[in-house]
Design goal:
Layout (H helix, E strand, L loop, with lengths): L9 H11 L9 H7 L3 E2 L3 H12 L3 H10 L3 E5 L5 E5 L3 H9 L3 H15 L5 H19 L4 H7 L6 E4 L7 E4 H11 L3 E6 L8 E5 L11 H16 L4 H8 L3 H10 L3 E5 L2 E5 L14 E4 L13 H4 L3 H4 L9 E4 L2 E8 L5 E5 L5 H18 L11 H8 L5
Antiparallel strand pairs: 1-3, 2-3, 4-5, 6-7, 8-9, 10-11, 11-12, 12-13
Helix pairs in contact: 5-10, 6-9, 10-12
Length: 395
């Protein structure tokens, strides 16, 4: 009788998470921290820094070096139309597999809005010329803000209305849509923030500033992205992969096959690991971590019961965004928050024992010192984080 796929239980899944995601043992650099989880969520700018700190204890200047000086990491829209930070070697695959498909529909909406505004005779041609002018202006400046680009390319200030004829039409500038499209195409990239590291407004640099591999085909791009995800997050179910990428079932199945993913079993059904990665992974030494909102580990699977338990309602907002979490040995055991005076406080929802509690308190003290007086409020606030900041009780 031929044996079926090996079963990987929840305990081993937690062991893999701790080892693969650089949480049980720190890594040397922001580049290593990012590679450990494929990509860092960047919808909230503080998440990138705190996710890196949790895996390296690196200062903000180290991440800024990787992002803006060496450009070994790059910020772009990718999976689920979300803003990520990815290794530059993976940038073409993420952009071609997840960003490029957004170009045509976004551009079509912008062309339609321009036609309705009636200010330009040939919206398609005008938009092509405007995009070329923006890229030229960015290349000439090296780095430029949206305001500076607006002065250099006045057409960016043109107003259009989205949702014409609906209950809530919205007037926006062409700049707000075109700069995103040019990013999807890889012609410009987000660079340094306008303010400190907590700012979510960025300058733009030319895409040519990146030393990146050639663009793959769309199918090869999806296989590379899925292969990277399976290698770091596996075992993952097909539902996990579809949620993480927001690709069709057919695209996901083809990418899993092309990436050479191997089938295993988890509680609830079939799952996938990287080819040749079905050997047992032993548990690491005991570990704890304080992860920020939107950390890629917390957000990495659609099915989360095996590490989150019943804590979802207090640690996630209504839209499914994770808040700051406390981890012990591969489980989420509570949440944390930074108060206005800079103190980092925790609320443990699980009995972790005296040793883990001391380790968690030590992490909270180290994180408060790392902030160095900066107070950073998560962009997506959750019930437990709000209660901790206010000093109130949450059932």
């Amino acid at each position: 009788m031929v044996a079926g796929p090996r079963t990987i239980d929840d305990a081993e899944r937690r062991a893999r998470l701790g080892r693969r995601h650089a949480l049980a043992e720190p890594v040397l650099s922001p580049e290593h921290a990012c590679a450990a989880v494929v990509a860092l969520h960047s919808s909230d700018p503080i998440s990138v820094h705190l996710s890196t700190w949790a895996r390296t204890e690196a200062a903000p200047s180290e991440l800024e070096r990787a992002l803006y000086t060496d450009r070994t990491l790059v910020r772009l829209h990718g999976m689920r139309r979300t803003l990520w930070v990815v290794p530059v070697a993976l940038e073409p695959a993420v952009r071609v597999g997840a960003g490029r498909p957004l170009v045509a529909p976004d551009r079509a909406r912008l062309v339609k809005a321009l036609a309705a505004a009636g200010e330009v005779a040939d919206p398609e041609r005008w938009l092509d010329e405007l995009g070329d002018a923006v890229v030229a202006a960015v290349e000439e400046a090296g780095e430029a803000t949206a305001v500076e680009l607006g002065r250099a390319v006045p057409g960016l200030a043109t107003k259009v209305v989205y949702g014409q004829g609906t209950k809530w039409p919205t007037e926006v500038s062409v700049a707000s849509r075109l700069l995103v499209i040019l990013g999807f195409e890889g012609r410009i990239v987000r660079s340094r923030p306008l303010g400190t590291w907590v700012s979510g407004q960025y300058r733009y640099a030319p895409g040519s500033a990146l030393e990146r591999p050639p663009d793959p085909t769309p199918a090869a791009a999806r296989a590379e992205v899925v292969g990277s995800y399976v290698a770091r997050f596996g075992p993952v179910t097909e539902a996990d992969v579809r949620w993480w990428t927001r690709w069709t079932a057919a695209q996901v199945r083809t990418a899993l096959a092309a990436a050479g993913a191997a089938e295993v079993a988890v509680d609830g059904g079939p799952a996938f690991v990287a080819g040749g990665d079905d050997a047992e992974v032993p548990a690491p030494d005991p570990w704890v971590a304080l992860l920020p909102g939107l950390d890629p580990t917390t957000m990495g699977w659609k099915g989360r019961d095996w590490y989150l338990g019943e804590l979802g309602p207090v640690l996630f907002d209504r839209n499914g965004n994770a808040g700051p979490t406390v981890w012990a040995d591969g489980r989420v055991v509570g949440g944390w928050a930074q108060r206005p005076d800079g103190e980092v406080v925790v609320d443990l929802r699980t009995d972790v024992g005296a040793d883990a509690r001391r380790a968690i308190d030590g992490e909270a003290e180290r994180l408060a010192a790392w902030f160095g007086g900066v107070v950073a409020t998560p962009r997506f606030r959750t019930p437990l984080e709000r209660a901790l900041v206010a000093g109130t009780e949450l059932p």
